[in-house]
Design goal:
Blueprint: E1 3-6, H1 10-22, E2 26-32, H2 39-43, E3 46-51, H3 62-71, E4 76-78, H4 88-96, E5 100-101, H5 106-112, H6 115-122, H7 140-150, E6 154-158, E7 168-170, H8 176-191, E8 196-200, E9 206-214, E10 220-232, E11 235-241, H9 248-264, E12 269-277, E13 283-289, H10 296-303, H11 307-315, E14 332-339, E15 341-342, E16 348-349, E17 356-358, E18 365-369, E19 384-392, H12 395-407, E20 410-412, H13 418-426, H14 428-432, H15 439-443, H16 446-476
Parallel strand pairs: 1-2, 1-4, 2-3, 4-5
Antiparallel strand pairs: 6-7, 6-8, 9-10, 9-12, 10-11, 11-14, 12-13, 14-19, 15-16, 17-20, 18-19
Helix pairs in contact: 4-5, 12-13
Bound molecules: ligand MV4.
EC number: 6.3.4.14
InterPro entries: Acetyl_CoA_COase_biotin_COase (IPR004549), ATP-grasp (IPR011761), BC-like_N (IPR005481), Biotin_carboxylase_complex (IPR050856), Biotin_carboxylation_dom (IPR011764), Biotin_COase_C (IPR005482), CPAse_ATP-bd (IPR005479), PreATP-grasp_dom_sf (IPR016185)
GO molecular function, one term: biotin carboxylase activity
Length: 480
């Protein structure tokens, strides 16, 4: 591979390009009219404008992107995450045009894009699943039967759903019929597919996912887990690796289960297998994400591997250069997603101009960033500015570094989720490791940040006062 096109924008386009360059491969950026001066455009060897700002006129235009790739004699397309990354038709169109899609085959994308197809596919692989039914269900009486078998509360889920869309908790039998009708109509309007199924509702779950990587020679490795339980409305905000609650035995079991999921669909490339873990540490397969994830850096820091480099090697047909036994966990990493959103105002997007934008640096601090001082934040895309990742020998060390690094961000012009990050990392429940997916709902309110800001202001005032008194002492000394 001599030239790779990165079909994405923002921090992930920059992140991917860094590795592509490191490998001595030429880079091609595509960009929308809103991104003319964006960092990913400036970093690339070549850059081509593919349309107007709206995603469906630029970053989602697979046909245009393939056209650009062909005209510039590109060998591979890296889709990043979001946009076209999990679009099976795009992956297929790329392959059909004679270019390598740096990701799995379209068949694997298609299977894992449907929760029911995924369940069907992994069935013979002895993967723990949440009790329930693994086929689309429309008959209310049948649903009642399943529900009384697994016990209430149950969760109705849309097969095509993602990010919690089309999910409905049902506490008791008399609510089942209306819940099901709503779930079906919601799924139909949101995904054009009204298939729903029923599972036992796991009450206080943790979200633990396993990074896998498979080559075209039949090797599948796992790169341990990431804990992503701290999320708000199905949007992850804080991630870490490893999870603070897994024993080595459990880690091995989950890693092996994740590899089996990958094998079940002939997976190739980087993927993530999501599990729910209940309060008794039982784990259940949820779904597989067939892309590089936003939170991949925490895995890179604890394993010392460059996941993008492995993606490219595997796409070139090389065998994975290590064995499972070679992989070990070293230290601990935490990540905060820094969004241009106002945590004091229901996390509404806070778009505007980045009047000041200075990033923390230092040992154990990694910032994956897609912005620059003076830039306007486009309203058309996800408002994530950067990811702050810190690494330490222990979890405590990583968290301390994180709190310090958050303070060393200097952003003016927009509100960000940085103060919310301070809240999470300073919180006793997070620090103790005793938390679940309900963390934000349970502990967070804007008042918490206001209290925190007031406490910080008090410290700053005390320091100023002390300095003032000290200065006065010095000034007075000669006259005394
Ligand atoms: C569940 C669950 C409880 N029980 N399934 C949410 C998104 C989708 N990927 C799966 N989700 C869940 N499935 C059963 N049987 C709770 C969730 C869930 C959740 C999962 C992971 C991370 C955050 C979450 C927040 C709320 C609900």
């Amino acid at each position: 591979m001599k030239k790779i096109l990165i079909a994405n924008r923002g921090e992930i386009a920059v992140r991917v390009m860094k590795t592509v360059k490191k490998m001595g491969i030429q880079t091609v950026a595509v960009f929308s009219e809103a991104d003319r001066n964006a960092p990913h455009v400036l970093l690339a060897d070549e850059a081509v404008c593919i349309g107007e700002a709206q995603s469906n006129k630029s970053y989602l235009r697979g046909d245009k992107i393939i056209e650009v790739a062909k005209s510039l004699q590109v060998d591979g397309i890296h889709p990043g995450y979001g946009f076209l990354s999990e679009n099976a038709d795009f992956a297929e169109a790329v392959e059909n045009s004679g270019i390598t899609f740096i990701g799995p085959k379209s068949k694997a994308i298609k299977i894992m894009g449907s929760k029911l197809a995924a369940k069907e596919t992994v069935k013979e692989y002895d993967i723990p699943m949440v009790p329930g039914i693994d086929e689309a269900i429309t008959d209310v009486d049948k649903a009642k039967e399943i529900a009384s078998e697994v016990g209430y509360p149950i969760l109705i889920k849309a097969s095509a759903g993602g990010g919690g869309k089309g999910m409905r908790i049902v506490e008791k039998e008399e609510d089942l019929e209306s819940g099901m009708k709503r779930a079906i109509s919601e799924a139909t309007s949101a995904f054009g597919d009204g298939s729903v199924f029923v599972e036992k509702y796991v009450k206080s779950p943790r979200h633990i996912e396993v990074q896998v990587m498979a080559d075209t020679h039949g090797n599948v490795l796992h790169f341990f887990e990431r804990e992503c339980s701290v999320q708000r409305r199905h949007q992850k905000v804080v991630e870490e690796a490893p999870s603070s609650i897994l024993s080595p035995e459990l880690r091995k079991k989950m890693g092996e289960a994740a590899c089996k999921v990958a094998k079940s669909c002939d997976y190739v490339g980087a993927g993530t297998v999501e599990f729910l873990m209940d309060a008794d540490h039982n784990f259940y397969f949820l779904e597989m994400n067939t892309r590089l994830q936003v939170e991949h850096p925490v895995t890179e820091l604890i394993t010392g591997v460059d996941l993008v480099e492995l993606q490219i090697k595997v796409a070139r047909g090389e065998a994975l250069p290590m064995k499972q036994e070679d992989l070990t966990i070293n230290g601990h990493a935490v990540e905060l997603r820094v969004y241009a959103e106002d945590p004091l105002n229901d996390f509404l997007p806070s778009v505007g101009n980045l009047e000041s934008y200075q990033l923390p640096t230092g040992e154990g601090v990694r910032v994956d960033n897609g912005f620059r001082e003076g830039m306007d934040i486009p309203i058309y895309y996800d408002p994530m500015l950067s990811k702050l990742i810190t690494y330490g020998k222990t979890r405590e060390e990583a968290i301390e570094l994180m709190l310090e690094a958050i303070q060393n961000y200097k952003i003016k012009g927009v509100q960000t989720t940085l103060p919310f990050g301070s809240f999470v990392f300073a919180h006793e429940a997070f620090r103790s490791g005793n938390f679940d997916t309900h963390f934000v709902k349970t502990y967070y309110s804007p008042e918490k940040i206001k209290e925190q800001t007031a406490a910080e202001a008090e410290v700053v005032a005390m320091i100023a006062l002390y300095q003032y008194l000290e200065d006065k002492k010095i000034v007075r000394l000669p006259s005394n």
